[in-house]
Amino acid sequence: MELIIETEALTKRYGKKTVVNELDMKVPQGSVYGFLGPNGAGKSTTLKMLLGLIHPAQGRIRIFKQTLNPKNRLEILKNAGSLIESPSYYGHLTGRENLEIVCTLKGAPKEEIDQALALVRMENQQHKKAGHYSLGMKQRLGLAAALLGRPRLLLLDEPTNGLDPAGIQEIRDLIVSLPKKTGITVLISSHLLSEIDQMATHVGIIDQGQLIFQDSLRALHAHSRCRLHIRTTDNAAARTCLAQKGIAAAEKNGQIILEDASDSSVTRAIRLLVYAGVGILRAEAPQVSLEDIFLRLTGKKVSL
Amino acid sequence: MLIRCIRTENKKLKHSILWLACLAIPLIPAVMGTFNYLGNLEILTPGWHNLWTQETLFYANFFSAPLVALCCAYLWRLEHRNHNWNALMTAPVPVWATVLAKFAVAFRFFLITQLWVGILFLASGKCIGMEGPAPVEILGQLLRGTLAGAAVAAVQLFLSMAIPSFTLPVILAFIGSIGSIYVTAKGLGFLSPYALLMLGMNANHQENMLEGQLFPFLAAVAGFALLFGLLSIIWLKKKDIRA
């Protein structure tokens, strides 16, 4: 797996407070990496360090297989588009004029402006002053600006903030389509678990500056492996019967909890209980949601 | 790279009313100076020279540095607003080019303002019936003042970059100008960028204030411009961007 971003023990402190703590981030090429965490977890600070906007207290950043330093920062920035915190714009200029400024600074051809405007569906608003845009339109403008210069890497900090539900879906669809269409790698931060679940191929979960989970989205979902909850007429007899046959089971809230909820294990356990004369009142396998996993990992509730 | 940055700075100034300020503000000292000249004709020797002393009394001492400060504050205000620091510092251009582009644009504003001041001087002279052509030395003094504007622009660009407020750096320039009248009177004018403007313009003096001191004057201007230009670059490189 080729990595486009790799950090080693990346740390940022403000005074005595450690905002990002020894972060080892690994973003595979061509992925949509969802950087998930509650507000104030250190997501924006990490993204800003990746762009060289903030200087790390310690640690190393490798982007495009180069260690980020003042000498190659501009070369790296040429290949990276970003939308950090809130969109940047000059309110007295039109949307198009704002993009022309970005285009000139990136040395990108002017034709890309029309393509970027079309991608974020802002062709009809391009001649309005950016200061008169709604927050959602400013986000789109920011996204269009980030796409100029055909970057290989896109860093987006909470890009759906302030968008209406239709706009959110549109931007999500766009982000998901980008790696397929252009081969671009997207690093997107969000405090919305459901958002990351819909878009990301890989996930990093940050809490209080520490990366507490990092893997593919599939691996995160594997954590949601369900257990079988069985309500019986005689829990003690049920546990004894299952234990005799070596089936791991615990009792919680008046229910028998079967750790292995695979089809074969369930069939075997139910058959044993029936033959042992234990009455089965109910058997269910409640799905563990991503939120439950997040809660288990961070001890905090997240927005959905 | 620098040309690219200057082009973007020019684009950022589209639809702005900064030009209006640069044209309107010098009208005030020109009118005040002309009336002051007419009101003091019993103690002043009539002529172009004394009209110049009266106009520069107001313009160089009170208006020119705050005017440069106003331009610089506007140029950085654009970046202080709407999270533009993030975009500015993630643009793939070197920091020196960003600083130099803002300096070039601010200096161009002042250059055109100085030309306008010259035109207003000639126009006000002709309006009050001044005869003959204006002395050539005045053109030289206008040019010296323009060069001194580079030192003020470098200082004010640094202040307006480091201070998010629009008005505070302009107020500082005004206080600096007032303080520099005293500094100049004490013969320490080369130590203040605002005083350099007064010395350059020969403000309120008939005799040449830089007699035999043109080279130290130019060195002081270059020194201030370089020092604050470098300070701006270092500050930008070290700063954590928290837009």
Structural notes for this entry:
The complex is a heterodimer of chains A (304) and B (243). Chain A is of the alpha/beta class. Chain A folds into two domains: 3-222, Rossmann fold (3-Layer(aba) Sandwich), CATH 3.40.50.300; 228-287. Helices cover 37% and strands 27% of the residues of chain A. Chain A has helices at 43-50, 73-78, 95-106, 111-119, 135-147, 165-182, 193-199, 217-222, 235-244, 263-275, 290-298, and strands at residues 3-14, 17-23, 26-28, 32-36, 58-63, 66-67, 80-83, 153-157, 185-190, 202-207, 210-216, 228-232, 249-252, 255-258, 280-284. Chain A has a six-stranded mixed sheet, sandwiched between helices. In chain A, strands 1, 2, 3, 5 and 6 form a five-stranded antiparallel sheet that branches. A four-stranded antiparallel sheet of chain A has the order 13-14-12-15, covered by helices on one side. In chain A, strand 13 (249-252) and strand 14 form a beta hairpin. The model of chain A has no long low-confidence stretch (mean pLDDT 87). Chain B has helices at residues 2-12, 18-24, 27-39, 48-80, 84-90, 95-127, 136-162, 167-185, 193-201, 214-238. Chain B has one domain (2-10, 19-238). The radius of gyration of chain B is 19 Å and the shape is elongated. Chain B has 243 residues and is mostly helical. Chains A and B meet through helix 2 and helix 3 of A and helix 1 and helix 5 of B.
